[in-house]
């Protein structure tokens, strides 16, 4: 038996992992979520804003991480729409612009058609330059953003009136898949102007441990990976979902089903691997 | 043909047959995309201005309905002043079937061949990439090459239109950019000759591609490295070094607002201080790790191992989420085995009903 596990072809483990993710998706298994303190902190930050306050969304992710970050982006936009906040979208990632457009179509145009482009929300699009962009838009936003993503002069967009720096924003929401992302926003914006810029973020699982040291001083709230997204979804939909909420606002929760089964398999494999290791060590000592 | 290859051929043939059967023979099919045609009808006018800051003499485009309300004879306008076009938004099979039930000749909701081909292409690319789990193979290499090629081209095009055009050419020659690419660019945009410097540096950077004088590219490269070193050094010291030291100075005896002892918050702070100090001791190599120093360093190793374990757990969660969305795409958009967002209520969606 131990020899079987010791010499097991790794492709069987791939197959098992594939099945552990595929079966819950096919059977649509879902499990209840309990919001953590960090997700609650993110929710509270948005809740604390008043109607008409300005929120800057930095969508620093692309389709490669859409599975993890898309659900939290959708919930965040929905939450801000419900709170009647002014939304400014931008991206430091080239494909982030498509992620912005996708969320505008999925949430704002579909469920909040009364919101007017240029008055309630604006898409400033992508700018090359990574952290250099953050550095510039802190001091002079208009220098870099002469137009929005559609080519309309920012001078002619009503909600851009009086906005010459991101310090004018009441909250900064960053959704980050890597570099440039939350770390750069913390380093170049939040730490430098702690009294002017307040930020919450959502990130991939790989990044989360690197961002925890910033909590809570530099980063009051963080949605870590798909788990954070599912928790935030619950908070938003419990308060604003209504009686028959759209299934698109539960993507995070839906993707937590495969997570549970796959993690169970992973724990089982680690236990089996450790048993084999300790048995081998014991036998080696005896011999 | 060896046994392994034979197994793969059989699997491919069976899989292909099931796919063909489900796509061609079943009533509902699979992997089809639908769109909704949205007619756009715009009229060129000089007033009213769309935005309050805009010059009244500026040309703006308003919808034809709005123009009719203002008394403009839209039908009498020429092609230059009246533009009509159609855009196609994604639609669901449910919406398509509902419209067809009302009017079988309607053209608002349509089957989209190009988007359906896109779904099939994306599905096969996903499968090609996943074949790498078995072993390196030509299918994987094809998918990898296509991805790299498209990404490089996309980055270049997006960078040109979103940054070079408005932020470089638009600063040096606003009228040119307004007339050629961005009619919405403000008329008040001044010519800023200072931007000749980044233009020059950019041209020097491209010199690297020239067979001679490649060294010219070192000057702008040195500028970029210098600027970013300076920026990152200061911000790292500020955000990650000094601020983290400050964040580490916490009370070990925490009381709440009423003055009562807060056990859990105090315990948390004790763990924080012990963790930081023991990890620092582990990296302190001026003394041999023996006695109290050795034991503290060992505690530091435990703290680091727990941190690495948490990082590994998060990484696993991230990777599973990525696999989940690809499988969801295959099962939902391509194979139509599931319908979590109710896109195909009328269609037969059954995991077991392959045909």
Quick synopsis:
The complex is a heterodimer of chains A (287) and B (355). Chain A has 287 residues and is an alpha/beta fold.
Tell me what the structure shows.
- The complex is a heterodimer of chains A (287) and B (355).
- In chain A, helix 6 runs parallel beside helix 8.
- Chain A is of the alpha/beta class and 287 residues long.
- Chain A has a six-stranded parallel beta sheet, sandwiched between helices.
- The radius of gyration of chain A is 22 Å and the shape is elongated.
- Chain A folds into two domains: 2-28 and 258-286; 37-245, Rossmann fold (3-Layer(aba) Sandwich), CATH 3.40.50.
- Chain A contains eleven helices and six strands.
- Chain A starts with a helix and ends with a helix.
- Chain B has 355 residues and is an alpha+beta fold.
- Chain B folds into four domains: 1-30; 33-110, no CATH class; 192-248, no CATH class; 250-355, no CATH class.
- Helices cover 58% and strands 9% of the residues of chain B.
- Chain B contains ten helices and four strands.
- Chain B has helices spanning 3-25, 64-69, 93-102, 113-130, 138-172, 174-180, 196-206, 218-248, 263-282, 291-334, and strands at residues 33-45, 60-63, 82-91, 109-112.
- In chain B, strands 1, 2, 3 and 4 form a four-stranded antiparallel beta sheet that branches.
- In chain B, helix 4 crosses helix 5 (138-172), helix 7 crosses helix 8 and helix 9 crosses helix 10.
- The longest helix of chain B has 44 residues, at 291-334.
- Residues 48-57 and 348-355 of chain B have low confidence and may be disordered.
- The interface between A and B is large, with 71 and 64 residues.
């Amino acid at each position: 038996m131990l020899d079987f596990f010791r010499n097991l072809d790794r492709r069987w483990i791939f197959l098992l992992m594939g099945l552990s993710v595929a079966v819950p998706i096919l059977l649509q298994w879902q499990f209840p979520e309990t919001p953590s303190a960090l997700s609650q902190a993110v929710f509270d930050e948005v809740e604390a804003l008043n109607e008409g306050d300005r929120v800057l969304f930095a969508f620093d992710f692309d389709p490669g991480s859409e599975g993890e970050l898309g659900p939290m982006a959708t919930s965040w936009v929905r939450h801000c729409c419900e709170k009647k906040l002014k939304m400014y979208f931008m991206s430091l990632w080239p494909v982030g612009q498509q992620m912005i457009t996708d969320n505008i179509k999925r949430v704002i145009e579909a469920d909040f058609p009364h919101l007017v482009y240029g008055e309630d929300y604006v898409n400033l699009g992508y700018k090359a330059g990574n952290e250099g962009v953050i550095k510039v838009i802190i001091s002079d936003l208009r220098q870099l953003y002469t137009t929005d993503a559609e080519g309309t002069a920012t001078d002619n967009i009503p909600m851009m009136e009086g906005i010459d720096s991101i310090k004018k924003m009441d909250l900064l929401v960053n959704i980050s898949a890597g570099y440039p992302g939350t770390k750069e926003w913390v380093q170049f914006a939040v730490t430098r102007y702690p009294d002017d810029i307040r930020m919450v973020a959502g990130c991939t699982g790989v990044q989360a441990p690197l961002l925890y040291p910033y909590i809570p001083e530099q980063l009051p709230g963080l949605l870590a990976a798909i788990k954070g997204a599912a928790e935030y979804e619950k908070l938003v939909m419990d308060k604003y979902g209504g009686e028959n909420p759209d299934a698109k606002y539960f993507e995070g929760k839906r993707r937590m089903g495969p997570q549970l089964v796959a993690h169970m398999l992973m724990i089982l494999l680690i236990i089996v691997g450790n048993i084999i290791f300790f048995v081998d060590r014991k036998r080696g000592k005896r011999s | 043909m060896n046994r392994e290859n034979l197994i793969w051929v059989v699997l491919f043939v069976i899989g292909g047959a099931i796919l063909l059967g489900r796509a061609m023979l079943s009533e509902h099919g699979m992997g089809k995309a639908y769109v909704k045609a949205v007619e756009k009808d715009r009229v060129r006018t000089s007033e009213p201005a769309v935005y309050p800051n805009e010059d009244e003499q500026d040309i703006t485009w308003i919808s034809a309905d709005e123009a009719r309300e203002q008394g403009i004879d839209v039908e009498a306008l020429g092609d230059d002043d009246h533009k009509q076009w159609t855009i196609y938004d994604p639609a669901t099979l449910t919406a398509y079937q509902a419209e067809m039930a009302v009017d079988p000749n309607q053209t608002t909701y349509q089957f989209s061949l190009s988007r359906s081909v896109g779904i099939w292409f994306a599905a096969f690319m996903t499968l090609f990439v996943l074949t790498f789990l078995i072993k390196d193979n030509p299918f994987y290499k094809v998918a990898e090459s296509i991805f790299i090629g498209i990404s490089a081209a996309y980055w270049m095009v997006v960078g040109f239109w979103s940054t070079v055009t408005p932020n470089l050419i638009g600063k040096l020659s606003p009228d040119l950019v307004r007339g050629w690419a961005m009619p919405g660019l403000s008329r008040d945009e001044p010519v800023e000759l200072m931007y000749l410097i980044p233009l020059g540096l950019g041209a020097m950077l491209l010199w690297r591609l020239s067979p001679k004088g490649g060294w010219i590219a070192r000057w702008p490269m040195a500028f970029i490295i210098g600027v970013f070193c300076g920026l990152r050094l200061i911000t790292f010291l500020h955000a990650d070094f000094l601020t983290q030291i400050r964040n580490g100075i916490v009370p070990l005896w925490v009381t709440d607002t009423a003055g009562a002892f807060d056990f859990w918050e105090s315990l948390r702070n004790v763990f924080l201080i012990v963790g930081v100090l023991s990890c620092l001791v582990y990296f302190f190599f001026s003394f041999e790790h023996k006695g109290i120093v050795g034991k503290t360093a060992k505690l530091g190793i435990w703290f680091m191992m727990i941190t690495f374990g948490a990082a590994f757990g998060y990484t696993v969660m991230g990777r599973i989420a990525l696999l989940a969305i690809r499988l969801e795409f295959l099962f939902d958009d391509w194979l139509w085995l599931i319908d979590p967002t109710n896109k195909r209520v009328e269609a037969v969606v059954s995991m077991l009903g392959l045909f």
